[in-house]
Amino acid sequence: MTNGIFITFEGPDGAGKTTILSMISEKFNHAVITREPGGIDIAEQIRKVILAKENTAMDPRTEALLYAAARRQHLMERVKPALEAGKMVLCDRFVDSSLAYQGFARGLGIDEVWTINQFAIEQMMPDLTIYFDIEPEAGLLRISKNKGREINRLDLENLNFHQKVREGYHILLERFPERIVKIDASGTLEEVYKKTLQIIETKLAEKSL
Ligand SMILES: Nc1ncnc2c1ncn2[C@@H]1O[C@H](COP(=O)(O)OP(=O)(O)O)[C@@H](O)[C@H]1O
Ligand SMILES: Cc1cn([C@H]2C[C@H](O)[C@@H](COP(=O)(O)OP(=O)(O)O)O2)c(=O)[nH]c1=O
């Protein structure tokens, strides 16, 4: 599609994507670092609607459509122009999050969610997706430690959902083996960082051949 390179970071909550992305961004200081849902003003506004605690009445399909709408806007405003300018774009979450969370864990169906996302992204898929794999318990524990509290009842109620999210990602790994690379995210930050860097550098070397 372009001269740039589009790399996405995926995985369950607490896998370490955001932390590793900020470490990687120091190495590739010319790269565009962004995230979904959000990244630009209109998409951040949509993010607020999706994540607002008071919106308990939100239908799962509405949620999937809003993620796809935010994705489209972010893609057109930030990702596509950067790729066309030959830049590297590193994005925290992309379409695989919708497939794993809405498609599989919420039960809308991976194929159904893929179809609505085709309208949003047309053919603009990542060159590489790094999937940070972790047991949901460990991911939630990291998040709760960060907030300085133990895992509570609500977190545990969510465990089943997070287990499904992980299962969803494993289905995607089988479906897109040439695009998605799995990393064991349960190691130390240094280990996960080194592995991530190695995968990105391998891809960059392939691209320049
Ligand atoms: N490899 C790791 N080992 C221990 N703690 C980690 C590791 N990676 C991330 N963390 C911590 O776990 C918490 C969640 O990490 P974060 O990067 O926000 O995850 P994500 O973006 O995948 O939800 C943060 O407090 C972070 O410092
Ligand atoms: C992009 C995207 C995110 N999400 C979810 C995953 C996260 O729980 C939440 C994003 O919140 P965020 O605070 O960015 O979480 P994280 O740091 O784990 O990336 O939205 C979806 O359900 N579908 C999507 O398409």
UniProtKB/TrEMBL annotation:
Bilayer-spanning residue ranges: none
Pfam families tied to this protein: Thymidylate_kin
Q: Does the keyword Kinase apply?
A: yes
Give one GO term, molecular function aspect. Answer: ATP binding
List the GO biological process terms. Answer: dTDP biosynthetic process; dTTP biosynthetic process; dUDP biosynthetic process
- List the record's Gene Ontology CC terms alphabetically: cytosol
Q: Which residues form the Thymidylate kinase-like domain?
A: 9-194
The EC code for this enzyme is 2.7.4.9
Task: List the catalysed reactions.
Answer: dTMP + ATP = dTDP + ADP
- Quote the record's binding site residues for ATP: 11-18
Which PROSITE patterns does the entry link to?
Answer: THYMIDYLATE_KINASE
Keyword annotations for this protein?
ATP-binding, Kinase, Nucleotide biosynthesis, Nucleotide-binding, Transferase
Q: Which NCBIfam families match?
A: DTMP_kinase
Give the function comment from the record: Phosphorylation of dTMP to form dTDP in both de novo and salvage pathways of dTTP synthesis.
Protein family: Belongs to the thymidylate kinase family.
What is the protein name given in its UniProt record?
Thymidylate kinase
Give the species this sequence originates from. Neobacillus thermocopriae
Q: Tell me the classification of the organism that encodes this protein.
A: Bacteria, Bacillati, Bacillota, Bacilli, Bacillales
- Gene name on record? tmk
